[in-house]
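Bumping with the actual sequence this time:
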Amino acid sequence: MNKFTGTLPALAIVFAVTASQAQALETAAPLLPPASVDAHNLIIEPPALGTPKFHEELSTVLWVQETRTPEQAKFVETTLNLERFALVIGNAIFEVDGPALKTIIDTAIDEVRTDYDAVKAVYDYPRPFEINSVVDPLGDARPVASYPSGHAIRAVVYARLLAEVFPEKSDELLDLATRIGHGRVIAGVHYPMDVSEGQKLGNAYADAIIAGDAFQNSIDGIRATGSS
């Protein structure tokens, strides 16, 4: 049995997108319907700085930092993108139109990011390493709003949308998404609540996208092209 051994450079070829494909998505209907997710009524209000609940969150970050392993450090420093999930999918990635898949997924992620960036701006919550100098962050440690976690949101959206195309890989995709979210706490760049609420929001975004005709029509075309 042929075992998929794709590397990131090889996947870059599989997912190479033409200018015409990108242009087609730019002129299409949004994959995330406007105002389809009421984030502020969906996620909890983060605790005020200095409260017992806040210190509980920060204490967890510090404890996880003390126990993290080199393997965990390597995992959390890995870039979050489509290629990371494609390695889980394996040979099945060659059974669909790879460039079209990348265009659809990347477009959905961009729309989701635009929406959650506005949510993060409302809360403007500081990162753990901004509050406590003992926190030693790994990977993408930018001093931008912490709540909710964008990585946790995007990981869930990647997994859920890809699971619509590759349902047989659903459990593995969702497991990877969960580990990516939890890895943000291990990395010292997010509190546990950032991740749990981010995953909740990611599922809401995925639900809204998957329910839409724009996404369903797109993946029908991806499947048909790949099987022809």
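The tokens above came from a reply further down the thread. Residues 60-227 form a domain with the Vanadium-containing Chloroperoxidase; domain 1 fold (CATH 1.20.144.10).
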